Amino acid sequence: TNQLAIAIDGPAAAGKSTVAKHVAQRLSYIYIDTGAMYRALTYKAIINKVDLENENQVSNLLENTSIDLEQTNKGQLVYLDNNEITREIRTKEVTNNVSIVAKHPLIRREMVKRQQLLAEKRAVVMDGRDIGTHVIPDAEVKIFLIASVEERAQRRHKENLEKGFESDLDQLKREIETRDKLDSEREAAPLVKAKDAVEIDTTSLSIEDVVERILQVVATK
Ligand code: C5P
């Protein structure tokens, strides 16, 4: 079969990464989590006490930063300047600040450049907010995943409890809404459904259902 690029976009906690990983596995494609790249930079900026609102400072930081994603059978590992930071980028502090870093045009320009290099050879499933619109505008398959805020917060809540993390459902809901608002209303490459994307509402679907639907779309290409 052809080697395709599959772009999966959508709001926070809509299940993009879980679904993308499964689709990549089924097709033996590589999976690229672009959110992890913005998270890694945010983590580094926080540690270095860089003012996240200062576009030039964050941009200078990014110029001297390497971010690598490694696929292993234990899942994706994220490296920042060759140090593994897979867990560190999932903290509340990073999650609640990443949209500030991601709104800067200079940051997005550099991230998109790096992501395009990773997607060059096709046979990729890439997830994010602007993959179908900016990173791979000519992707053969574009999926836009949505789910109600209630459902997304519930899923995250369940996940947190299973991992033994503290979790407050109402707070999660507010945080997801805030992040969606920032990501959708920013000027540079806001979260928006590409004209040629297939929208899938996952609210009442299982992971396996969503994966099957995406594979059905892939099969038509
Ligand atoms: O997908 P994830 O929730 O890990 O993304 C974290 C944040 O990174 C998003 O809320 C968004 O601000 C930013 N992001 C982005 N463009 C992408 C991927 C992520 O702006 N392609």
Automatic annotation (TrEMBL):
CDD domains: CMPK
Positions of ATP binding: 10-18
A Gene Ontology biological process term: nucleobase-containing small molecule interconversion
Domain (Cytidylate kinase): residue spans on this chain: 6-218
Any Pfam family the entry gives: Cytidylate_kin
NCBIfam families (UniProt xref): cmk
UniProt protein name: Cytidylate kinase
Organism: Aquibacillus halophilus
